[in-house]
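Chapter review: from sequence to fold.
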Amino acid sequence: MSFEIIEQQFGELTELVIQESTTGNRCVIIPELGGIVRQLSLRKGITLFSLLKTPPTPDSLLADTKSASELLFPFASRIPDGKYKFLGKEYQLVKNETGNLNAIHGLVRKQSFNIEEQDIQADRASVKLSYSINNPEGYPFAVDFSVLYTLHADGRFVLTYEAINQGNEPAPAMFGWHPYFVLGNEQADAWKINIPSDEIVDFDNNQIPVGRKPFLVEKPTKIYQKAFDNCFVVNAASDSVTTELISENQDITLRIKQETGEGKFNYLVVYTPPARDCVAIEPLTANVDSFNSGEGLNILAHGKSISGSITLTLV
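The token string follows.
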């Protein structure tokens, strides 16, 4: 196996590419645009599959409002009206969702990340990026956030995040990743999905949780004629769960494994966009609006950290 990390231009953006020459497996990362993964390609047999749908040009990527592949921290999904109460104090975040109804998807999107580390080993290569949150509007806390992307020789792609509270006050923290997945040139209606949950979050008209109800479907279930825009409580009896996106026509399955357990990824959002050409599968460490409900919310004391990993494989 022969790994390399190269730097290349994508319009005015600078990308880092981790690639392995034998298989062609590669990921393309943009540090200055929220540290996102713009491309991820993994091989099965003779075919190299591109697995992420992101805007195709630098300008469209910069203008993207759909959060393609974005890192969502210190909160993911919506906070209604941008208001939350934490440890007895009330806070007002910037209402940045389209229509200005809610705060959505955190404070590190589109921010310029620092490159902390580039590491090449015989069996893997990795890039570590970081961004420091320092008392922005509505979130008066100091938290260092980092993400480590690793491509392994056996075809695994691993995203590992870490957050450390550098301030003196306890800080609320939630993390999620927002990739849109594709499998070849097929439409999503050709696929099946295996969601590791028996419980779905019940939303109001503003996509804010109001309770839970059983999730009773065949597993795996056909995506055909189903419209997902839901949050699930995953089955966290073990230390991880795996969502499967399955193309029987192409004989491939994309596995998205998320760590579970205390402080880990115990929630999952699945979304089928109207174009039906991809599926968003978003591991979350807390429920939607956890800054208000506290469901799954991590509270970081001074100097304390939280971390977790998401692993992708193609079989």
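Two observations follow directly from the output. The chain has one domain: 3-314. The radius of gyration is 19 Å.
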